[in-house]
Amino acid sequence: MKSWAGYILAVLGFVIYGAATNADRDSTGAIVGEGSDDAFQVQVGDCFNDASMDFEEISNVAGVPCSEPHDNETYALVGLTIADYPGADEMGELANDSCMEEFAGFVGKDYESSTLDILTMYPSADSWKQDDHEVICAVYDMNIEKLVGTTKDSGL
Questions:
Q1: What is the pLDDT of residues 108-124, one digit of tens each?
Q2: Which of 8, 55, 62, 114 is the residue whose CA sits 20 to 30 A from 18?
Q3: Which pTM was predicted?
Q4: What is the distance between the alpha carbons of residues 105 and 13, in angstroms, rounded to a whole number?
């Protein structure tokens, strides 16, 4: 009985810790309080930092309000309609091409003359098998300067 109580307390502790560290959102869905944001819950307009991101397999991002200095802003979520996973290199190219198509419509300036660059997060072969068929497109400053405010229609 004692071991079950310890197990239940440990699980409860992880749940409370997770809830306390999640990014806070307002009624519109905008991040209003810093915290972890599940990569599968990222929304267009979400701002996040690179801190502690494992660029090999991203499962969470460090969400922050866009009014605070941040590294990246999500500008598009692209659902892929291909039938089979094409391989890592091809997936990277498909993700980049998909994000390029969405860039000017969000930023208000074409990619070539912008001071922003593109960060793509796309499915791995394993996550593809679990119905992860979405590309997350984010922008960041080419000079690795922090962004403040949204880049939507900024013409940066």
A1: 999 999 999 999 999 99
A2: 55
A3: 0.78
A4: 43
